[in-house]
Amino acid sequence: MTEAPTPERSGAAQLYLAMGDSLSEGIAASDPARTAWVPLVAAGLGDGYELLNLGVAGHDSQELMDEGPLDQAIVEIASRADDDVKGNEVGVITLEIGGNDLLDLYFDFVLTGICPTVEEGLENPLCVRELQAALAGFDPNLGETLDVLRAEAPGVPIFVMTLYNPFSGGSFNLEQIGILALEGEPGTVFEEGLNDLVRKQVDGREDVHLVEWYEPFLGKQGEYISLDFIHPNDTGYRVMADEVLAAMEDAGVQ
After folding, report:
1. pTM over 0.90, yes/no
2. Around Cβ 69, how many Cβ atoms within 10 Å?
3. Could you give the number of structural domains in the chain?
């Protein structure tokens, strides 16, 4: 189990609690503590907040629940609510997860040539079954995580992100695979993709807000994606942070 950092409590600052995977950890940023989207959001929130970043590179939606981050979030929420420091409670939560639920399929089936294109993948029962299983596992995991956070931190605004397509604007075959996995394709067995599941989980939940990362990255692989072809570069992370901050402003987070 990865042990996440504990922030030093600086008086009555509220806590910005970030949860996720390598995107929250800031992989491929030139300075993950400064130029990735989580620290940029923390800076945008200002001096009234301190940051606890529980993002762990490599975590999928199951590991977020099972390997420590969700448990540590619960402990932090409860301890701040019950201590004697007025005003230091958790004030805002961000949650991005799901990329690694899909990336295992990318490495195991797309790059190996088993499912190299959308057309071939849809004709291969193994490819269909693996993507169906990934989506079927992700959906309840996200729902349970949101249920737990909402129960432990009632009234605290939670911001949940759709995922961008890192291949958008690059290789046609990879771009189309990304579209299928994230947004679905009408007329196929995948009418909905992972982002559709995110949107449905957010819809109707009190004080849970959607942040769209998918559309701002359309056609932007060359501008927003790092040399690893998966994670953002500093420009991409800035775009992500700006989308989060705009959603927070719309929700009245100060």
Report:
1. yes
2. 28
3. 1
